[in-house]
Amino acid sequence: MTSRRDIDWLRGEIDDLFSELWQVPRFAARSSFRPHVDCYRTEEPAEITVVVEIPGVDPEAVQIVATPQALLVAGERRRPRADDRVYQQMELDYGPFRRELLLGADVDPERGRASYDNGLLTIVLPLAQRAPTTTKVPIEVRRGS
Q1: Has residue 100 been placed in a domain?
Q2: Which of 49, 53, 91, 109: disulfide with 36, CB 3.0–4.6 Å?
Q3: 3-class SS at 3?
Q4: Is residue 103 assigned to a domain?
Q5: 68 and 106 in contact (C-beta within 8 Å)?
Q6: How big is the chain by its Cα radius of gyration, in Å?
Q7: What is the pLDDT of residues 84-119, one digit of tens each?
Q8: From edge to edge, which strands make up the β-sheet containing 37-42?
Q9: CA nearest 34: which of 71, 66, 86, 77?
Q10: Is 56 left (phi over 0), alpha (psi -120 to 50) or beta?
Q11: Total structural domains in the chain?
């Protein structure tokens, strides 16, 4: 039997694949940037950590939106302005970016925190504290009428 976690993982992989398809540079135009992301969970403390590689991006211009099940990181890496440049080789990607991650566990966005150091944006989201969801349901038995 397929678990919910497996389905969520597969959905995330498919979403990433389609996102990458739309960000492939067309011909010689290089106007997309897709930062690499690491996402991991720890038990002590119980939290999910997301590390986004965004060197050259102004951290003040990065938008972070967290919900109990997902995280969005968006912004733009701008190409430096210089009118006298004649490029011999262009391999660095620039432009707007948007990364959406399904977290696979409920988090508490209000207690989340983020830091930026040496081009790495680190977002830490504590796991949500929930009461057990198991509930007894009484069954009413009726005799034939």
Answers
A1: yes
A2: 53
A3: coil
A4: yes
A5: yes
A6: 22
A7: 888 888 888 999 999 999 998 999 999 999 999 999
A8: 37-42, 47-53, 120-126, 113-117
A9: 77
A10: left
A11: 1
